[in-house]
Amino acid sequence: AAPKLLFMTREYLMRQNATGVSAAQFPEQLDFGGVQLKLRYRFEPAHSLDGVTVTVPLALLNQLDAAAFEWLVPGLIREKVGAFFKALPKAIRKQLLPLQDQVTRFLEEQDAGGGIEDSGLTIEGDGTSVALPRVRGKGGMGASGATHFSLTSALAHYIKMRTGEIIAPDIWDAADVPAHLRMNYRVIDDAGRELATGRDLVSLKAQLGQAAQLTFAKADAGIERTGLTTWDCGDVPAQIAFERAGRRLTGFPALADDGASVAIRLFDTRDAADSAMRLGVIRLLRLELKEQMKQLDKSLPGLTQAVMQLRGIANADDLKADLVAAICDRAFIGDDELPRVQNEYEAQKQRARTRLPAVRDAACRMLSAIADEHHRASLRLSNVPAAFNRLAADMRAQMQRLVYKGFFSATPWEQLQHLPRYLKALAIRLDKFPANPERDEKHAVSVAELWKSYQDRSDKLRKAGAVEAALEDFRWQIEELRVSLFAQELRTPFPVSIKRLKKMWESVAR
Which end of the chain is more exposed for a tag (fewer CB within 10 A), N or C? Predict the structure, then answer.
């Protein structure tokens, strides 16, 4: 006979688990920044909903941090931690025997706040609600105002303390962890209708993230404005609370670039708001500094020559727009804090007016130097013999990652000055290759391994809508490594080697 479908209630789970298990271990809801997210349990191994499902209003989707939900609920975390310990490489796993004792010790340390920066599983209330674990005192985690740490990071930290072994948290990415030990997300609209369900939060955000943001953009929070051409909107707070569909939500206001004007819009994450705010402030300054922008448009020394040299990369209009965007970003904001009150904005406008000529001159010099070296390298590569095919393919791939349509405004300002040296190193490498192709290939393999590590992690973060400063620093260290290996005479601004970068990667991966 077909098995009877059995929905897990807290009471059922308590009967199935060890004596002494309390209701707090299988809460009815999770506290997410003051919003109670309902939990539903099901015990049926073959069913897609096996395990625990959290119901998430669409408006909160983008604010969710997958790291927080790795911890599931207290009643299931022991089994999950045990599965992760079992999935470790044998050499490390042997140092942690017996595993069940290590599971107990790990969880006790988290409960006692002895893990990573107060990493306890905090139980609150009467057993019907459990607070998501978090690192207190750090900002940036959406509605909760805290950054949640991941279970895998806590485990990696624990293993290092116990064994001295350094492992990357993503060592468990390919682990065969049962589905019921991963949180299932059920996304609903304001009317409670299910929009999507699944255990991959990144995929759900990709599917519904834009719709989630639109729910904020359409919210009547009393702060939205359109058609701004000057700062006459009063203060723009970093975040506000408002009601939607009976729920108290947190939104992040920011200026948004509308082209001919600027608007104040509400965003559902701080990162999205900060990105929009930077572009919005720059647009507003461009509108207010009309005379300076007209002069800038007429005076971009070296642009005509650069357009000729980079015509295979971008057309004249695109390259000019890219250059102007980079100049405005650096001159108008640079490394300054984004203004959110009018007097701060007025001070920023004065700084922007003062800095613009010097930044323009520096940017044009860098673009000319980059275009010159790119042109030389391209000419050299167009005439390489067939025996150099492997080398030529590697060099072309590097050039395409350095110089592409929109590269000038996309490349960090401090890195633009180094691009001519990276491109010059290509020609030197080509000159040296015939004397020792085996050496070149050996170095190329080492660099390719490091680049693959970077690219894989970068792709993963991009899908999750995240950025890691340390990872981007590592990316530019790889370019310096190329100089060190293939064109030592050009020198690097600091010591760099394959060994150093491998050690750096261990830190980045953690």
Answer: N
Section 260-269 average pLDDT: 93
Contact 43, 50 (CB under 8 A): yes
123-124 sheet: strands from edge to edge: 123-124, 129-131, 29-32, 35-42, 51-57, 184-188, 194-198
Radius of gyration in angstroms for the set of CA atoms belonging to the chain, rounded to a whole number: 27
Give just the sign of the alpha carbon dihedral 213, 337, 282, 475: negative
What pairs with residue 51 in β-bridges? 42
**Choice between 76 and 467, residue whose per-residue pLDDT is larger:** 76
Burial level of 259, CB count in 10 A (0-12/13-18/19+)? exposed
SS3 104: helix
Torsion of Cα atoms, 170 then 172 then 178 then 183, to 10°? -30
pTM (two decimals): 0.81
How far is 373 from 355, CA to CA, in rounded Å? 27
**Tokens representing residue 318 in the block:** 């695109």
- Is 124's pLDDT higher than 60? no
pLDDT digits (tens, 9 = 90+) for 341-352: 999 999 999 999
Q: Please tell me which of 8-12, 177-181, 368-372 the model is most confident about, judged by mean pLDDT.
A: 368-372
**Residue 161 near residue 144 (C-beta atoms within 8 A):** no
Q: Which of 492, 294, 339, 332 is nearest to 409 (CA)?
A: 332
Q: Does residue 477 register a pLDDT over 80? A: yes
Distance CA 433, CA 393 (A): 14
- Mean per-residue pLDDT for 291-295? 95
**C-alpha distances in Å from residue 116, one per residue of 64, 132, 153, 248, 482:** 21, 15, 8, 30, 36
CA 277/CA 365 separation, integer angstroms: 29
Residue with tokens 């939500």: 249
pLDDT at 33: 76
Question: Residue 161: which residues within 8 A CB-CB, separation 6 or more?
Answer: none
- Quote the CA–CA distance of 370 and 404 in Å, as a whole number: 12
Q: Which residue has the higher pLDDT, 204 or 506?
A: 204
| pLDDT score of 150 more than 70 | yes
For every residue of 33-60, DSSP letters joined together read TTEEEEEEEE--TTSTT-EEEEEEEGGG
* DSSP state at residue 135: B
| Burial class for 418, CB neighbours closer than 10 Å (0-12, 13-18, 19+) | buried
